[in-house]
Amino acid sequence: MDHFQLKNGVLYAEDIPVPQIAAEVGTPVYIYSRATLERHARVFRQGLKDVGKIHLAFAVKANPNLAVLRVLANQGYGADVVSGGELERALAAGMKPEDIVFSGVGKTRAELTLGLDKGIGQFNLESEEEGQLLAEIAAARGAQAPATLRVNPDVDAGTHAKISTGKKENKFGVGIDVAPNIYARLSKLDGLNLRGVAVHIGSQLQNLDPLEKCYARMGELVEQLRGAGHEISHVDLGGGLGVPYKPEDNPPSPADYGAMVERVTKGWNVTLMFEPGRVIAGNSGIMATQVIRIKPGVNSDFVIVDAAMNDLMRPAIYDAWHHFEAVEPTGETMIASIVGPICESSDIFTKERKVDRVATDDLGIFRTAGAYGATMANTYNSRPLVPEVLVDGDKYAVVAERIEPATIMAAEQVPDWLK
């Protein structure tokens, strides 16, 4: 459920008509619903009510906007970060250092040091070399870094290849076959408090079978590590639950997921850690856009809108589906390709799809844009960086300004020897 609904023939974001935001802020623009964010945060937590001791860390990469992070911090969520910048954002948004988990395959010495300086709760180690480096940095200051070892279980998540992370050919984690030996060596280092293992096999999962298979393997690994004398107190199960982009999508609910986790992990006697991202933020946001013009095509018309692939990258890089609809629908439909003004053939949101009929200057939206939307935006073709708005009932605030090309250009310089 979300809070973007038609009222008297006009789409509203909670209690504010989308045309009002479009007129006052301009388009394209991302619009987030606080009520939807909070509802999804509560539903996910409720789904895990029977699991035991848990830790929830929102995957910041899904939506790093400070206002969004503050909403989730107020719901008791920590942060799963994959860079020093995301770590700083999580702290700035009010998330507690001890509730921050630092993931990511390429943490630098500076980022590891930053995590130690800020006193974060856990480092998820992606390789033996990374563990050795972290131990060295921590030991030099007489500290022990809390850490888990990320394992690659060689499980196919059954999702898009570019968001699959748990197969043996993927770059993430250490192979589950070599994990016990690596764990044994790292556990002896003075600078590490190695307290468990971590796993994450991919994003936008549409059924629980791959996750159940993965977790079963992790349970076997935990038993093996304990048999070797290691104390295992934490297991990070990652994230990855999908959301419905298409009408026919039916991903597992947090309640179904929680029931599976409770069944598979019974008897583990650990703190289970979760890193939801898309399932919290996806349906909490839309991107509003305005039709520039309708251009006749060979097979169908092209609806050219002022949003482009630089504003919403997922269709261009993943062939991802985002439902398009008119802000003031008439009930009529058309077969059309929704495209942007970027000088690339990949700048296309829908291809010859049945959509609400729109005309020049009409407003439309792309749904399920709250995750992996604005966070992946860029300024290709010297376009402005898209703004973001947070709605709360009958009020809204611009929570990320539109950054104009002139502002970006001001950071560039022509050297004297070219003048």
Morphology: globular
Number of strands: 21
Q: What ranges have pLDDT less than 50 throughout 5 or more consecutive residues?
A: 159-167
Secondary-structure-based class equals alpha/beta
CATH top level of the largest domain is: Alpha Beta
Overall helicity? 25-40%
Strand percentage, roughly? Answer: 25-35%
Please, how many domains? 2
Q: How many helices in DSSP terms?
A: 12
* CATH architecture tag of the largest domain: Alpha-Beta Barrel
CATH superfamily of the largest domain: Alanine racemase
- N-to-C terminal Cα separation, in Å? 57 Å
The overall pLDDT, averaged over residues, is 94
Major sheet size, sense and barrel closure? 9 strands, mixed
CATH topology name of the largest domain = TIM Barrel
From the structure above, extract its key features.
419 residues; alpha/beta; Lyase, Ornithine Decarboxylase, Chain A, domain 1; TIM Barrel; 2 domains; nine-stranded mixed beta sheet; 21 strands; 28% helix; Diaminopimelate decarboxylase; lyase; Orn/DAP/Arg_de-COase; EC 4.1.1.20
Mind sketching the topology for me?
Blueprint: E1 4-7, E2 10-13, E3 16-17, H1 18-25, E4 29-33, H2 34-47, E5 54-59, H3 66-74, E6 78-81, H4 84-92, E7 100-102, H5 109-118, E8 122-125, H6 128-140, E9 145-152, E10 174-175, H7 179-187, E11 192-198, H8 209-227, E12 234-236, H9 254-264, E13 271-274, H10 278-281, E14 285-295, E15 301-305, H11 314-318, E16 324-326, E17 333-339, E18 348-356, E19 363-366, E20 388-392, E21 395-400, H12 405-409
Parallel strand pairs: 4-20, 5-6, 5-13, 6-7, 7-8, 8-9, 9-10, 9-11, 11-12, 12-13, 15-17
Antiparallel strand pairs: 1-2, 2-3, 4-14, 14-15, 14-19, 16-19, 17-18, 20-21
Helix pairs in contact: 2-9, 5-6
